[in-house]
Design goal:
about 280 residues; alpha+beta; Serine Threonine Protein Phosphatase 5, Tetratricopeptide repeat; six-stranded antiparallel beta sheet; four-stranded antiparallel beta sheet; 7 helices; 10 strands
Amino acid sequence: MKRTILSLLLTTAFLVAIVDAQVQIRVPRISQGAKVSQIIGLSEVSISYHRPGVKGREIWGNVVKYDEVWRAGANEPTLFTFSDDAVIEGKKIAAGTYRFVVIPTKAGDWTLIFNSETKNWGTIYEAKYDTLKLACKPEAGPNEEWMSFSFTDLTPASVRVVLAWEKIRLSFKIEFNTVDKVQASVGTWQLLNNAARFALDNKMYLDKGLDWVERSIALDKNARNLQTKAELLAQTGKVKEAVTTAEESVKIAKEKDPKANTKALEKMIADWKSTM
């Protein structure tokens, strides 16, 4: 009888141990994870990081040591991913994912580093994998309790990334070759016209825009791409040519459909003529 009771007790203890080993209690991390991303034209930047808090501590020179590598976050490494080749403050970097670290200094510029080793824990840094380094002047700002990354000054080809923690801001510009991405996607007259409209609407790559719309017209001359060409000509100061091209667009539109609404373009023509 004693052996049976002992056997049951041992079996129960063994099963409890198994169940206990299988139960994993999840609790929130002190420095919680975050992911931010931004589309720039036809490219994308994404940042994965963990957000340490100030919590009444002296951060710079104490929690984060001067002249030592800081993981720019907490826990796992802070990672930047670029969908396409990019230029950061004038320096080229290939598409891919990079560990991002910072070396702060008590005075002068701080060093920002993009490093190709991304698997090790956040505090493990090997300089031999450095891909890009740049100097960045820290700026003062309002207190940021939880470290953050954000995006500002967005254009179709560039964005500024801002790292903010405590009363320090670090910012740097990232650029993509949007025009090459657009060019790679064009083919039909519609796509070429859309690419030209992109240049027109954003007031950039205007010479490329004229080239794209000329190629669109060569494939299929119609009221839409003629209007695009007219607007691009006006944008580049060729008002007389813009009027001639726009009038041709109105003519073709009305020949195809006598009820076509060309009032907006006709107003543009009148405005252009008033400047001639």
